[in-house]
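We both want to read discrete structure tokens more fluently, so let's practise on a single case. Would you write everything just below, so we can both look at the same thing?
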Amino acid sequence: MPKLNKDIFFLIFEELQDDSKSLFSCLMTNRFWCETAIPILWKNPWRYNINYNNKNSLYSVIAFYLPDNTKELLIRQGILLPPILHQSLLFDYLSFCRSFDVEVLNSVIFTGTLDLYNQFLLQQEIYDLLMRKCPELKYLNIKSIKHQIFYFPEAKARLESLCELKCDTSIDSSYFYGLARICQHIQSLIIINKKISVNYGVVKLIESQRNLKYFELKDDFENDDFIEDPYKEIFLALSEKADILNHLKIYLQYIEFYEHGIIQNLLTKFHKLKTLIISGIFIPFSTNQLKMFANELEIFNIEDITLGEASTIIENSGGHIRKILLRYFEFDYYDEDNFEEESLDLIYKICKHCPLVEYLSLLFLSTTEHFIEFEKLLKTCQNLKSLLLSISNVDKEETGKELLKVLIRSAPTNLREIRFFNDFRFPLENLEEFFKNWKGRPALSILTSDILYTGEDYLKLFNKYKNNGVIKDFRCDFEGGIYY
């Protein structure tokens, strides 16, 4: 039974691994809880929201494991280390570690020395230490790394098991060639693009993967005058992973039009995608290409997409979509008649093909027909938790009143959040009536971009219903934070 109890506690504590405050408090309860929580904390000790620059304890624990002769050399070099102790630590902490985060480690190492050369020496010793002490590495963040860790004696045995890698393209290509030789079973690969030219080492690393499930590419550079296309070779390498990739996220700095057509062809090959997020780039798709999109999509988020394109993708999505987080082209881009037809069609397609949707962004007109279709959607999509609404209208207050009536009549019981722009407004008395009718449902979070709701009367109303448990949160964001 004690073994069973410990296993149960371990499973419970694993559920707390994102909640550092609760997990750390478990250490102080008793020895049994402490013994159970320590392996979870040290599995990935770099993840927690701690100011590591001021956490000498973490630095002391890591430095404890350095050989005495190494400590003596480093101390003579002027590096600050804790006193050499000969008693053992309460736990063999590093034996639980399955991760390696260069960014956090370097901030910890900063505790020992301000001198850049000494930091380099200390980094090398601690990286080597982790390669020797960690039984296997599952997660690695090597952004801006200076040491070729794959040359350390234990590197091959430790890195063969790597599942998640985060890196950036400022690292020399030769570094990635070394990783590609050892790490061929990475499931999650996040690349921060800091160059305006191709990093062929990154391309080789992608090509070498046999089980790549998650891929994320994010631009982070100031100059967008490309020396050469930094994406083409990466996308071509990704296209060879079409049969295994499930999650694709591309965040490019704004590119008005991508000429090569590579992304369009790439996306039509990925039939097993569950997550598709594309930001910062306008991609013109043909109707046939849209129909060839993945039919297992669960999360769908393409920035700057037309209503018609979104409808076509949703129609062919296979009924699995849980999140539709789109930033549609502004309705000003449309012919008015065409916009009305396409917005109605989008609501209809979501209602018909997305019964499981939980997060939804919508752009439509404030006509009677639109509200009828929207109410049908609310009644059908009972899993809906969050709505982002932009409703074009003539009379802002009348639109706000109608929306509140529809929500009271038909909002699913799971709805917990409403986000809305200043296209429409809720009169104070109607909003209070809405809150009265909402009582007994899950507490509601409200996010808006309209400064009207920061007025004294509105804030007084929000605070009243916060105290009553009707409202969980109210926030006004003028800078685009209302988007998912």
